[in-house]
Amino acid sequence: MDNKRDLILLAGTEETRLTLHQQLKDILGKYISITSYASETSLPNMLTNKLIVYSSHLIDEEVRHVVDDSCEVIVSRRTTNYQYIEQLFQLKEGSKVLYVNDFPETSEEAIHTLLKTGIDHIEYIPYHPGTAVTQEHLGIKTAITPGEVHLVPDHIDTIINIGVRLIDITTIMDILEHFHLKEQLGGDISDRYTRKIIELSQNISDMHKQTVQLNEHLKQVVDGVNDGIVAMDTNGNISVFNQMMEQYTGVFATHAMNKNIKQILKNDQLHSFLFKENDRSRFLTINHYNLMVYRFHLEQEGTTILIFKNADETISIEKAARHDLVQKGYIAKYTFDHIIGNSKMIDNTKKIATKLAKTELPVLIQGESGTGKELYANSIHNVSSRNYQPFLAINFSALPEELIESELFGYEEGAFTGAQKGGKKGLFEQADGGTIFLDEIGDVSLKLQARLLRVIQEMEIRRIGGNKNIPINVRILAATNKDLMSLIREGQFREDLYHRLKVLCLQLPPLRERVADIPLLIEHFMKEQTNEPVTITQEVMDSLMKTNWYGNVRELKNTISYMLAVREKEQITLEDLPNAAPLNEYIYQQPSPTVVEEDWVNVKRNDTLLQSIYEINKRGERASRQKLINESMSQGLTMTEQQIRTQLHKLQHKGYISIGRGRTGTNLTAQGVNYLESND
């Protein structure tokens, strides 16, 4: 190679130097020796008798002191790096982007080049260091930059780096002219640029074909959906109109496309829903079709999607699904209407339960035996978003442990002697998508507790004898009449499982705390068990109202059943009471007299403490234990600090109070207030 053919490239930044040096080397490296410098790093002492190529006229002031008058200078004309511009064609037409470069001149020049080359489907907003950031800038979330990523402002979400701009072909020809190589290499280099343009055109053509194919595929998918689908811009101009919409409206998609929705669907209710109301769904009748219309907005695309569901078909599908669940027995039989009572306490409990049902979180239902925990579990499922999905229940006190595991988790074929062929799905698998009710959770062994904890944490199960985990999606409801905190202290219940189950908690009131509901319950049970016109004397009613009902609603129902069975007249009298004795002595698993007396003392203490907390809170003071001791004494009840602490924990467990730390103190909950009011 002739050593006299030396070219010196001078650039502003190191990144620009590297890119342009490589470009010149690829094209001219066989014929010309190329040396390059960047002013931001280092420059030579003095250059003489050389061809100097500037990366841009903007660097003249930075480098002129090292360029002797004996040198010939060529200032590069630059063009877009076509290798990376495919990304620009993916931007939505009309969208605004920042064009970020180091100087105002380079930004404007690059934008001019992009527009001149036909990449004009987007609006470029120039940006460079020192640009005053306006509201318009802040609203733009995409930036294009020729390698100056570090200059992109922080509020930008998407950065498209199209690389350093390259030296264009006219500058390359000027260099060849200088070295008298134009005739020898000009045609070859021109062909090389032409090939690059052809390759770019081919890439664009391939992208267009792929886009056409994708659009055709999406059209087939959209047309195959059993719902009407419409997409429109912010002005209401239609871009998608599928075959189901043709059926609902009688309008062909070819006629609807690019038309305004007001021209195609002349329905005032629909227009009001689309352009005036904030609701996400609306029931409409179009051409005798009962349709549920759902709307959601794609903010970035500026597009609104409408989905039209045939309400009649949806109801039929839901009925069929419900029938299938009934056939399998996977259905919750009870609703809140089955829970009899209109006292403030029971109304409040049902309101709380309804709110808890709307979440997807686990609920722990706590209450004494006979308070209706199963009814509440059924009711919660029936008002939840899973109400058309399976509801399965298991009672841990009713099955031996060796059966519980196979019932819950299922088993594979051959897992144990007697395992049925093909294996069996467990309740968790069968309840997938719905709710599983774990009744009497306090009776679960520690070994089974560990397995339950893992299932709830990971939402996956492994069948007995299986070697793979099966993902599930179930909502957990659990119930117990036991004091789980006491079991935790005794080491009989895992604290981590307790907190997993008690994400939400529902405390059911005992019957003796909602005495006002007893007449309604009696009336309900009598109608349920006999068609005869049977009445109850006032003396019997008074006796039933004064009973403690340690077996709660279940005990009351059993008592009504007994009296209806033994009566000899159409009116139940005192003689028909069980054993003709006070009900609290009747053997329905009643506690001993000592236990009754202790329970009365605890009730008295609870009532006094709740009243004391109420009085202290009303004065705007913190309910400390010392203040509660003093307040309780003023109400005629003496308790030690330890007794106060014990009773407070019991009241918190019942959901009547919240115990705060420090200045917060102890406060009544809404349930506690309702309890006080119902016992006034």
Molecular structure report:
With 680 residues, the protein is of the alpha/beta class. The chain is 42% helix and 17% strand. The protein contains 25 helices and 28 strands. α12 (344-357) packs antiparallel against α25 (670-678). The model is unreliable at 585-600 (pLDDT under 50).
Please give the structural blueprint.
Blueprint (H helix, E strand, L loop, with lengths): L5 E6 L2 H15 L4 E6 L12 E4 L5 H4 L8 E4 L2 E2 L16 E5 L3 H13 L6 E5 L7 H5 L2 E4 L12 E4 L4 E2 L1 H10 L3 H43 L3 E6 L4 E4 L1 H7 L3 H4 L4 H4 L3 H8 L5 E6 L2 E10 L4 E8 H18 L15 H14 L5 E4 L6 H10 L8 E5 L5 H9 E2 L12 E2 L1 H4 L4 E5 L6 H13 L1 E2 L8 E2 L3 E6 L3 H6 L5 H7 L2 E4 L10 H12 L5 E2 L1 H9 L5 H15 L4 E2 L20 H26 L6 H10 L6 H14 L2 E3 L6 E3 L1 H9 L2
Oligomeric form of this entry? single chain
Biggest sheet, in brief? 5 strands, antiparallel
Strand content: 15-25%
Structural class: alpha/beta
Averaged pLDDT: 84
Binned, the helix content reads: 40-55%
Show unreliable segments: 585-600
| DSSP strand count | 28
What's the alpha carbon Rg, rounded to whole Å? 41 Å
How many helices in DSSP terms?
A: 25
What is the overall silhouette? elongated
Q: What strand order characterises the main sheet? A: 12-11-15-14-13
Taking the alpha carbons of the first and last residues, their distance comes to: 110 Å
Short description:
With 680 residues, this protein is an alpha/beta fold. Helix 2 links the parallel strand 3 and strand 4. The strands form 9 sheets. Strands 12-11-15-14-13 form a 5-stranded antiparallel sheet. A 5-stranded parallel sheet has the order 17-20-23-16-24, with helices on both faces.
